[in-house]
Give the backbone structure.
Amino acid sequence: MRARSGTARALGVLALVVLTAAACGSSAPTTLDGAPGGYLITLGQLTSPDFTVYQAVKQVGSGWLDEASSTALRKDGLVRAAAVEYDRNVSFSTSNGPITLSAAVAAFTTTAGAAAAMIRLDTALDARAGAVPVSTGPLADGGHATTTQGTVEGVGALQIILVWRVDNLVNSLVAEGRLGGLQLDQLLPLAATQTANERAG
């Protein structure tokens, strides 16, 4: 995580990880073959004000979420992935909602490969130091969460990583913010929006 004064950039020991596999709704698996960058949530779709683009849409590698899983994800059929990052220049100590938000989409050759990748990521993220399982609510099949807390400049801080699958696509949102100001339910609508982008083609 990048260090940046006044925000959660200095936070390096936190992880709230949410994993969910979205059912495709039909007996035959669907393959979504659009460019991953075209599915990413856009600046205009963000629900919190004051965000700007920190890192424009770009291609990322198989270790975008967990470097140790990169080789296995390639074996699962990872074809390509893209990510974008947004940032809010507000006071961390009094902030509500995410301060930083990174979104990614990774395309796999098959739905089965994406499902296998989700299992790998679930296991890897659960194994991170200090991870504590928490309830995700009705996030479709396979909902999972773990949480670890820390501090930034003496203020409680939180990082949330939300991962879910839509057919052969594995999605992730990574958010950072103040503990008590950043909550999982602020990210769920964003996940729904990115899913809608994918369903719309």
About this structure: The CA atoms of residues 20 and 138 lie 10 Å apart.
